[in-house]
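User: Run a structure prediction on this.
Assistant: Running it now.
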Amino acid sequence: MPITESEIRNRLSSVAVSQIGDVMDRLGLVDSAISPVWKGARFVGRAVTVLTAAGDNKVIHDVIPTLREGDVLVINGQGSTSRALIGELMAERGQRKGCVAYVIDGAIRDVDEIGELRFPVYARAITPAGPYRNGPGRIGVPVAIGGVVVSPGDWIVGDADGLVVISNDDVDVVLVDAERKREKEAQQQLDIRAGLVDV
């Protein structure tokens, strides 16, 4: 019987990004320079992808009204850190649409306010400089984020350590392997605490 999307979300939320990365042969892990902008951020969702010109957020404004519950907005901003692609207002707009996180290979601003929203945002940098709004951009195409290709509909998991991308075609197998990894590590920890492992 196929695993439902809701079950995948729930079960992925109980495993660490590091555990998922380990069972994927350490592939699919996003460059650590793209990190959570507030402490405690964690999410699981499916990618809605955007490619935009450096420092320009016109296409991001275009895509936000289309976001749905459980989406992760994944933005290739060319890795540019000179201008923020989103701030507090755009974060709250996405949150109100049901989007669970923004992942941005680029910069953001209003980091304290985004933290107060408790809306997960992962970005390469923080800057007060605002963006242009001219374009060009693309929605729903494969994009590169921190050295990993993300296709529309891929699963993204984020925690304090960082981000991992799971192909939708592989998620069932990866999920089971990651749960086994979690249980193995939990048993190893119990063995250490019980004195069964020479520390």
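The mean pLDDT is 96.
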